[in-house]
Description:
- By secondary structure, the protein is of the alpha+beta class.
- The protein has two domains: 175 residues, no CATH class; 54 residues, no CATH class.
- The protein is 40% helix and 13% strand.
- The chain contains nine helices and seven strands; from the N terminus they run E-E-H-E-H-H-E-E-H-H-H-H-H-E-E-H.
- A three-stranded antiparallel beta sheet has the order 3-5-4. The protein has a two-stranded antiparallel sheet with strand order 1-2.
- The relative contact order is 0.14.
Amino acid sequence: MTTEKDTTGARRRSTEHPRQPLGEVIGFVKRLSKLAGSADSLAISKVMDDMKVKNRTNDRFSSLLSAARQFGLVTVKGTTITLTPVASKMMHGTETTRRALLIRAANSPKLYADLISKYDRKGLPAEAALAAELFEGDYGIVKTKTRHAAAMFIASVRDADLVTDSGILRALDPQELGDQGLSQEGLTVNQDTADKQEQTEASTASSERAPISAASRVPDRARQSSTLQLGDGRSATVDVPGDLTAQEADRLKKLLDVLVSDRAETPSG
């Protein structure tokens, strides 16, 4: 779990969130299923040998394992990984079953369930805008991790086929797909005790943004546009549909703050 110092110098924890997208995790779980054969469990060391990983703290290995647990596809106890009923049914069920369980997996992390509910039937926000939302909202994500968390969420809902061609997020219920073999019984995973890792719950932001298309309904005479020259032939334009409230101006400042942070942390060359 990532930490960073707050304004008092104290360490602040970041809410646990997947560090790998759902599509990558599904590939990892397929690998686990193949290694396990007819069994549901296998030794972590066997997986590490197969992936040629020497240390359990290897970033890619640990992030895949953690994300698989958060998506409800594995449990981890000691040195053993166990595929959940969700994962087993996903690996061996029909295409309809697989798609329904992908949706269920995408909704398993609380952060993802909150965001899917928040943006249901709305345009999926761009990565930078979602990063700003995670930073300013009460989601518990530390500033330095918001951009990556946003990217993983966007990739995961696309992997679960929850985004239309026009970019609208759809919070589908798995049962809408009509597979009668998908009962809740046996498919629920207690992630709090899966591997005894502490998870901090994030509360949903109290207010929702208006749909992106709302800006197009503002008369042109009410719009404000400002262009700032950045240097090196670059410029930035801010197009505001009407007057900004103090709260909206603060949101814009926080978005810029996230962008500046990401640029500063990107290694050159």
